[in-house]
Amino acid sequence: MKLKLAFIAFAMLLTTILAGCEPLLVLDPKGPQAETTANVIWLSILTMAIIVIVVITLLVIMLYKYRASKQSEDYEPPHIEGNPFVETIIVAVPVIIVLFLSIVSVKSTYEVESIPEGYDNQEPLVIYASSSNWKWHFSYPEQDIETVNYVFLPTNRPVEFRLYSYGPITSFWIPQLAGQKYAMADMVTKINIVAETPGDYGGRNANFSGEGFAENTFTATALTNDEFNKWVEEIHSTADQLTEEQFNKLLKPGHLGQMTFTGTHLEFAPAPEGEHGGHHHGETQEEGQSNHEDHSSHSNHEDHSSH
Asked: Which residue in 24, 141, 197, 283 has the fewest CB atoms around it within 10 Å?
């Protein structure tokens, strides 16, 4: 009786908890990249469920069929050398499962890394997404706009995010639009996204990067093309110009709300790609000049010593 009451109480508690849960965002895709990821997750869950069901069913059958109470007290099991058929199944089935999941994983990885099928004939909108403790900076070089902690996207157009960091490694993630991609200090990584449904989608840093990590979030808003173009026009008529001094203040550790500027920091602090790539990204201009002078002084000292 006590066991039955405990089971009923546990079932009610579990039902209450699950009733308050929001749907998993990764399983509610709003773009082709996220849909591919969601399909792989569902396929993996189905595969694992089949394995678990088969294994538990065989376990119950074996426990019941070969239970000790069924045999006489003087029963002695026969000596068996082995069964090639059973042994082949035991080895082959896991190999087939691993091979199947590996093929699916590799195929889906290439799919989500490239521009989605059907959109490869369009020129992608390039947005630089850089992180700092604990903010996200979005630079639109084509539109000459920069936003902080929010990003607007046109629907049904490929968007290429170019990611990097002004601090520790972070992970750019919009669960309903795409998977995660790391943003690092000395290089640019890229992730392709297409939003097919207008709406607001939560994004965040999915890699622990210090005490402010929990609030290192942003909002991605998908707009129709007309609404996106109208937003660009409004920003140019209302927002202030981003200056280098102001940007350096934004890089200081802390949390900020959403901010909007005309111009981008790429003009005076280019992304670490091409000729600007290297191991000095994130330094202020004064620090970079000081390091250059120290290096030059050290080189001159060595040349003088050699003479």
From this structure: 24
Alpha-carbon distance 278 to 186, whole Å? 6
User: Is residue 135 located within the same domain as residue 264?
Assistant: yes
C-alpha pair distances (Å), 119 with each of 106, 172, 196, 206, 225: 21, 22, 11, 27, 15
Contacts 24+ apart (CB under 8 A), 166-169: 166/130, 166/131, 166/132, 166/251, 166/281, 166/282, 167/131, 167/132, 167/133, 167/209, 167/282, 168/133, 168/209, 168/210, 169/207, 169/209
Q: In the 8-state DSSP scheme, what is residue 21?
A: P
Tokens 């080895």 label which residue? 91
CATH code for position 244: 2.60.40.420
Q: And the tokens for 161?
A: 């995010």
The reply to whether 68 falls in a domain is no
**In the chain, what percentage of residues exceed pLDDT 70?**
82
DSSP secondary structure of 49-82: HHHHHHHHHHHHHHHHHT-GGGS-TT--PPP---
Structural domain of 169? 125-279
Map residue 147 onto helix, strand or coil. Answer: strand
- The total number of structural domains in the chain stands at 2
DSSP state of 268: T
Burial of 74 (C-beta count, 10 Å sphere; 0-12/13-18/19+): exposed
- 94 and 189: one domain? no
Place of tokens 């003009």: 267
Is the bond preceding 231 in cis, omega lying within 30 degrees of 0? no
Instruction: Give the angle subtended at the CA of 236 by the CAs of 231 and 239, to the nearest 5°.
Output: 95
d(CA 205, CA 131): 9
Task: Give the pLDDT confidence of 49-85 residue by residue, as tens digits.
Answer: 999 999 999 999 988 887 877 777 777 777 777 888 8
**What burial class does residue 96 get, using C-beta atoms within 10 Å of its C-beta: 0-12 exposed, 13-18 middle, 19+ buried?**
exposed
Contact, 253 vs 212, CB < 8 A? yes
